[in-house]
Specification:
Radius of gyration: 40 Å
Structural class: alpha+beta
Oligomer: single chain
Largest sheet: 5 strands, mixed
Order of helices and strands: HHEEEHEEHHHEEEHEHEHHHHHHHHHHHH
Strand content: 5-15%
Strand order of the largest sheet: 8-7-6-9-10
Number of helices: 20
Length: about 550
């Protein structure tokens, strides 16, 4: 009963009954009003296509850019074909296809001979996901970035603005890409060594980490067919110990792994263990059958390391002026407030240098040079700081005292002296240009400089020069103990040749000893020429057969 009442409540009769059509015309009008209105096309493709009906009554869409026609009946075809064409149309200005490249101007900083600068070069570019991933891995390697760099919010926001199409890989994917890139480059370099019969020079360096693990780095240097100097790190690995046999076996294993058997020189530090390693390598390389004069000139002592030993020996007994400057720098660098106060002193003294105070490491002479070189520029600022900070004077008086004008004069002389060795180390340590032809000139200049310091009126500087000269003569005092390649590189330099070498040797070692040494070097030149002639003549005969 209740259910019936509810039904009757829902079926309520209208208060105004519908009008009754008086004629057929009125019926047609009412029917037309009840028909659904036509809807505007909602698909985005119609922003790029024009809809029309052809002569047969078929609905079609025409591309607004290339005027190609497609069937687009909503019941039969739909808009899929139109959408595909919209993204593939070459003439569509709103779509960037991978087939179409963009023109862009690559800036250039090179200077023209007339004095003007290049505006840049016009190149083409199109987006490629794989190429972008490869260059991302290269950036991670070159800039020494962590793999998780790609997961940082800043990098993601940057890529959203610069290239939204780039799918940012995970750090695991980036690590694999870096390894794949390494293996690819390693394979190319290995094939080059095996196919080109390239003769190379090797440098090794060994050290012990804070975790007491021994490491060794092996680097190869060679000149290609285009006379371009290359430097490649072949291996960076832990070794069992610093013993000569262990070092020699590690280098041998690395060379065999890379397929390198034509070795000209091996440059090592001055340690007795390296002498044993060189003796081991000589036997192996001679046995491979590709040595030059049975590895007579294989052992090359690192000149930068010898210079470091010479300078360190001279600075063992550091004069009091250096100690005073070191304590002054240490005091000011101990707090940001002191640094800010010192900066104010520099402004009051009108010092516009952008250098900042740096504290040295006592075991590294180059850091001592950099500390003194910077500190001497702020001599007046140190004097003013002593007047506004009483603790500065009190603390330094308890040790070696404040640096005075005489100390600064000593510092300037020491900076001038150490600057020669600092610049010399930078010149001979270059890896992007050939340095072998300048070794003899640099060694001779150091010898002359030390002799000049030995005759100095300054007692401390004269003692320092004396100590350094003793260490210098230990390695370079006897020319017969030096590798003759140092002299040969000067002879083959077209700026000097053999005549200059004779003159230089007579100047450095005296006329009699110099001329005797020049004869030995001349014989060595002929000996090397005959060896290379024999080697490459044999290779030419094999190729001709």
């Amino acid at each position: 009963m209740a259910q019936q009442e509810t039904t009757n409540d829902l079926l309520v009769e209208p208060s105004h009954p519908p009008p009754v059509a008086s004629s057929q015309t009125e019926v047609d009008e009412a029917t037309s009003k009840m028909k659904r209105k036509g809807m505007k096309p909602r698909s985005a493709v119609w922003d790029h296509f024009s809809k029309f009906v052809d002569g047969s009554g078929t609905q079609k869409g025409k591309c607004n850019y290339c005027y190609k026609e497609f069937f687009c009946d909503p019941k039969k075809n739909g808009t899929t074909a139109l959408r595909n064409h919209m993204f593939a149309c070459i003439k569509n200005p709103h779509v960037m296809t991978t087939r179409q490249s963009q023109l862009y101007l690559q800036p250039s900083s090179s200077i023209q001979e007339g004095g003007g600068s290049h505006c840049g070069t016009l190149n083409t570019w199109n987006f490629n996901q794989e190429r972008s991933r490869r260059n991302l891995a290269k950036m991670i390697i070159v800039d020494e970035l962590p793999f998780m760099f790609v997961e940082g919010e800043g990098f993601k926001e940057f890529m959203e603005v610069t290239q939204p199409k780039f799918r940012i890989p995970s750090r695991w994917t980036v690590s694999r890409d870096c390894y794949d890139l390494y293996m690819e480059e390693r394979k190319k370099l290995k094939n080059y060594f095996q196919n080109s019969n390239q003769r190379v020079c090797i440098t090794t360096d060994t050290w012990t980490s804070l975790q007491r693990i021994n490491y060794m780095c092996i680097t190869v240097h060679y000149v290609d067919d285009n006379w371009t100097l290359h430097k490649k790190i072949l291996n960076f690995c832990p070794i069992t110990s610093h013993k000569g046999d262990d070092i020699g076996m590690a280098v041998e294993s690395c060379l065999l792994n890379w397929g390198i058997k034509r070795v000209f020189t091996v440059t090592v530090d001055n340690a007795s263990s390296n002498d044993v390693a060189i003796a081991y390598l000589k036997k192996k390389i001679v046995g491979w059958g590709f040595s030059i004069l049975n590895c007579k000139y294989l052992h090359m002592r690192c000149i930068a390391h010898i210079i470091n030993l010479v300078v360190v020996d001279g600075l063992k007994e550091t004069n009091v002026s250096v100690k005073r400057v070191r304590e002054a720098v240490r005091y000011i660098r101990q707090s940001p407030a002191r640094l800010q106060k010192f900066k104010s002193c520099c402004e009051m003294e009108g010092i516009e240098s952008k250098s900042s105070l740096c504290l040295d490491v006592c075991t590294r002479w180059n850091s001592t040079y950099l500390m003194l070189n910077v500190a001497q520029k702020f001599e007046n600022a140190f004097d003013r700081y002593a007047t506004i900070d009483p603790c500065f004077k009190f603390d330094l008086q308890s040790s070696d005292g404040l640096p005075d004008s005489l100390d600064w004069e000593n510092v300037r002389r020491l900076v001038d002296f150490l600057g020669h060795f600092y610049d010399l180390t930078l010149r001979i340590s270059g890896s992007r240009y050939v340095t072998s032809n300048i070794f003899f000139n640099e060694i001779s200049s150091v010898d002359c400089l030390l002799q000049e310091w030995q005759g100095s009126n300054d007692v401390e500087l004269a003692c320092m020069g004396e100590r350094m000269k003793v260490k210098f003569d230990k390695y370079w005092g006897d020319p017969d103990k030096m590798n003759k390649i140092v002299y040969i590189a000067v002879v083959v330099d077209p700026r000097y040749k053999l005549e200059f070498m004779e003159f230089a040797l007579s100047t450095v070692y005296g006329k009699e000893k110099g001329m005797e040494l020049a004869k030995k070097i001349k014989l060595t030149v002929y000996e090397l020429f005959d060896e290379y002639k024999k080697t490459y003549q044999a290779e030419h005969d094999v190729v001709a057969m």
